[in-house]
């Protein structure tokens, strides 16, 4: 399983007992440090945390049964390219699970919050 935009790893840790292995990625080194600590504290050993994006990481085509992209699509510049990349990474018959709030009223708040998150290293530049 692949999770991109894993943040502090909470979702990966929840799913870990139910899958063979998870590659959990995020652009933020700070978030991945937190995720690694949380996984160690929980005794979870089947997650590989990797820093980068869908575009920058060397990930083999058709190598994942499932891809998670939770609460991340609204932060990406090119959503269509991200979804195309997910499709490349999925094995035939694999699934992509995503949930992202794209309500117009929320977008303004995100637009104001994202520069602060970027400055702190918690969101992509």
Automatic annotation (TrEMBL):
Q: What is its EC number?
A: 2.1.1.-
Example GO biological process? methylation
- What InterPro entries does the database record attribute to this sequence? Methyltransf_11 (IPR013216), SAM-dependent_MTases_sf (IPR029063)
Enzyme class name: transferase
Keyword Chloroplast among record annotations: no
Q: Which UniProt keywords apply?
A: Methyltransferase, Transferase
Gene3D superfamilies from the entry?
Vaccinia Virus protein VP39
Q: Which GO terms describe its molecular function?
A: methyltransferase activity
A Pfam family cross-referenced in the UniProt record is Methyltransf_11
Residues in domain Methyltransferase type?
Answer: 2-97
Superkingdom assignment: Bacteria
Q: Does the keyword GTP-binding apply?
A: no
Q: What is this protein called?
A: Class I SAM-dependent methyltransferase
Origin organism is Marinobacterium aestuariivivens
